[in-house]
Amino acid sequence: MPERYPLLFSPFTVGGLDLKNRLVMPAMLLNYSETGGINDTTLEFYRRRAQGGTGLIIVGGCPVGPLAGRPSMISLRDDADAKGLRRLTTALHEAGARAGAQLFHGGAYTGKRELGAQAVSSSPHTSRFTREECRALSLAEIGRVQKDFADAALRAKESGFDMVEVLASAGYLICQFLSPRINRREDDYGGSLENRMRFGLEVVQTVRKAVGPDFCVGVRVSGNDFVPGSHTNREAAGFAAACVQAGADMINVTGGWHETKVPQLTGELPRAGFSYLARGVRDAARVPVACSNRINLPDAAEEVLARGDADLICLARPLIADPDWPQKAQADKPGLIRPCIACNQGCFDSLFQGGAVGCSVNPRAGHEYLPRPRRAAKAERVLVIGGGPAGCSAALAAAARGHEVSLWEAGSALGGQPLWYGAPLGKSDFALLGPHYEAALKEAGVEVKPNLTADAALIQNAGPDRVILATGARPSCPPIPGADLDHVCTAWQIIKGERRALKHVVVVGGGAVGVETAIYLARSGALSPEQAHFMALFESEAFETMQTLLTRGSRQVTLVEMLPKLGRDIGRSTRWVAFLLLKRYGIQTMTNTEVRAIEPGRVLLDSRGERKTIKADSVVLAAGAKPQDSLYEELIKYNIKVDKVGDAALIGDLGAAVKSGHELVNSF
């Protein structure tokens, strides 16, 4: 056991279940099967995480009945599901992990299109998640749903699972009974908190009775609903304690409901930012507690355990990004862990678009069922130009196939755009990619040469068999009269700190870069986290004053977009946060608006057919990017075998860049 993480990798027993370490992979929707059965995609995804050293893997959510969840979720509805589930649990056990199943009922959070029927809840209401009307469960139906939970739990036990977890978080059915905001019933399941807890507690009791006294039962709760008029950590702790009395062995604490306006998974939430919720529940429940949300680094996980905030650590997206997270941490090589950077692009954004879970930084995620690339029949001398995500991905893939790889980077550090783009825009974990690539490339034996600007002659003299051009992109400059004036610059120059904007700023372009740059500029001068902590600790300002100062910076920012909508290229899982911040920071937005000309001190606009002039001490252009690929044609003239990857080939997001480097190398 390494000294660095003595708690994280210490054995632990909960509800009679022996775990080899404190790491839990919580349930998550994968969308790998249309029917809810265990196919090779699902099986190999989970097997790979077990092989990587995770102690407990909880699969699901697993719908317990006909109106519980969408068909693509891992099913516990019927005895016919047992064969596939047994195949899964056997694979997890053989790989050294314990297996759990989450018992799921979405209630009003599951749509009619998915169910083929109207959704059910504690009371009739319009779901803020699906925007559909749902109906109330009758007393007879309540009994049947509780029996569904019990039958599913027994089915899980008989299929080889080591524990089950009752889902009572995130706004799903049990939450809809618990919350006074949703539950308007006038019978024994509504009214007082005691009555509103009744449904969930009876579910726990029926599950416990079904599986017997010696089988581990957990409950996943919202540590705070983060929804006005609903529960805080105080009520969550009380419910958790009551669940223990009803038969629960452990409590898994996450954040709020899906419909909350408090970010749960994006970079705005600090690492382990909800550990205080776990601590509140642990103090009340007096049983082992798991802590969730934004714990992506081993040091953060060990600190949560050391403080006594929790007994177990949940890793969801971090294990999608790197299934070997546990083994690398246990070997005291945290730098080799491929970091989850909280971008949500490959996982949640994919789900929202109807796709399956993948990962921006791990091109193998969701494709573990495919054979790993074989070593090349003939090793080549491969030269990669550019140390961004595409170049580093290509270099690592080439080294894994046995090629002799060199990587040249014009800057002093690896990482590309994420190196400078993330931190100013509230995406601090983007900066983790560069140090990871440095460690991983060194481990793989790749020769890295920083501060080396490549040209065709240098490359020819190096004599590579193959060149991979990963030189990225450069900002586009729209043909606007006045775009060459001194007070005009690009968004990249602002974010890199190469230029400073004055008080009145117009940002031209309402895509992701424009939106995020506008927020960055509007936020400057508002209270920093350090200032806010100082003021709160020493009570130097009234709370109301602090609230105002938190959202009022020094600049007045206007965001101009010629299309009807802003943020067209921002993923759904993060777009709402960006729009919320645009509003909170008082940024004026203008859509269907074209910039006609830029003049000293002002911008001339055509807004929905009306000519307007707005003040502009500074103008920031966020009008897209284009490939920086001038070397390509030169190398072709030298008869050098060359390919382009990432933005040098086609402008795209981080995931596309990483995938392009990986796939190119595995194609030759």
Structural notes for this entry:
The chain has 668 residues and is of the alpha/beta class. It has 23 helices and 28 strands. Helix 4 runs parallel beside helix 6 and helix 13 runs parallel beside helix 15 (433-444).
Short recap of the structure:
With 668 residues, this protein is α/β, with parallel strands linked by helices. The protein has 23 helices and 28 strands.
Q: What's the story with the biggest beta sheet?
A: 8 strands, parallel, barrel
Which sequence of strands runs across the widest sheet? 3-4-5-9-10-11-12-13
Annotation, overall tally of beta strands: 28
* N- and C-termini, Cα separation: 41 Å
C-alpha-based Rg, rounded: 27 Å
- Class of secondary structure makeup: alpha/beta
Mean pLDDT: 96
Shape verdict: globular
Low-confidence stretches: none
Which band does the percent of strand residues land in? 15-25%
Proportion of helical residues = 25-40%
